[in-house]
Every structure is written in structure tokens, then in C-alpha cells.
Specification:
The protein is mainly β. It has a single domain (about 25-114), classed as Jelly Rolls. Helices cover about 0% and strands about 35% of the residues. The chain has no helices and 8 strands. The strands form 2 sheets. It has a 4-stranded antiparallel beta sheet with strand order 1-8-3-6, with no helix packed on it. The chain has a 4-stranded antiparallel beta sheet with strand order 2-7-4-5, with no helix packed on it. The chain is globular.
């Protein structure tokens, strides 16, 4: 079989300075909390806390919302995490992440990696 190299697509050049997606971490910390008062954003940390990735698990029967300090549940303006689901994302500072819910006492847990 002969391959006509003129018909093989040119590969996309790779940036040697680009950083790939990190899949292993040296440290992990776990925690849990709840939205004590409905529609009141709860920070995951009160001050700078180093992070690279976070998993947030919704341990409640209501949808929780993740976002910055302005996240609300009614009207919802964050990323929804439905009951018994986990949402993972990259973040550099845990204190920038807030959780909110329309139901008081909604529990969630998290794992942070760095």
C-alpha cells in the first residue's frame, strides 16, 4: 500500500511552552459544609487557600449552585450541581469559590488538590 503524503493533513503545531492538564497532585484536603441560610453564598475558605483542582459533591436533596461571591440560587446564576452529583474544575484559590442553595441546610462536601 502506498500513502500519498500530499493528502495527509498537516498536524497542528504544539506550543512547547503550553502547560497540559495536570492529572496528579501532591496534596489533597477534604471538607464539608452547608448553606445555613437559603440564598446566602457560603465561601469554601475564609482566606487564600492554595488549590489547583476542586471536586464539589452535592450531598443534599436540593440543587446547589457554585460560583463567585455573587452566586445566587433564586434567581440561579451559578453552575448547578444536582443532588448526588459532583462538579470538578480548576481553581487557584479556594476562597474565591462560593456555594449557594434555595434551601437552608443544604449540605455539600469537597476535595481540593494542589
Amino acid at each position: 500500500m502506498t500513502v500519498d503524503l500530499s493528502k495527509v493533513p498537516t498536524p497542528i503545531p504544539i506550543d512547547a511552552n503550553a502547560k497540559g492538564i495536570q492529572t496528579s497532585y501532591n496534596n489533597m484536603k477534604s471538607g464539608n459544609s452547608s448553606v445555613v441560610t437559603a440564598n446566602t453564598a457560603v465561601p469554601l475558605a475564609s482566606s487564600f487557600t492554595q488549590a489547583k483542582k476542586i471536586d464539589i459533591y452535592n450531598a443534599s436533596a436540593s440543587t446547589i449552585y457554585v460560583g463567585d461571591s455573587t452566586v445566587t440560587a433564586t434567581p440561579a446564576n451559578g453552575i448547578p450541581i444536582y443532588p448526588a452529583q459532583t462538579y470538578s474544575f480548576g481553581v487557584t484559590d479556594l476562597s474565591l469559590v462560593y456555594v449557594n442553595c434555595a434551601t437552608s441546610g443544604s449540605a455539600f462536601s469537597w476535595n481540593v488538590f494542589w
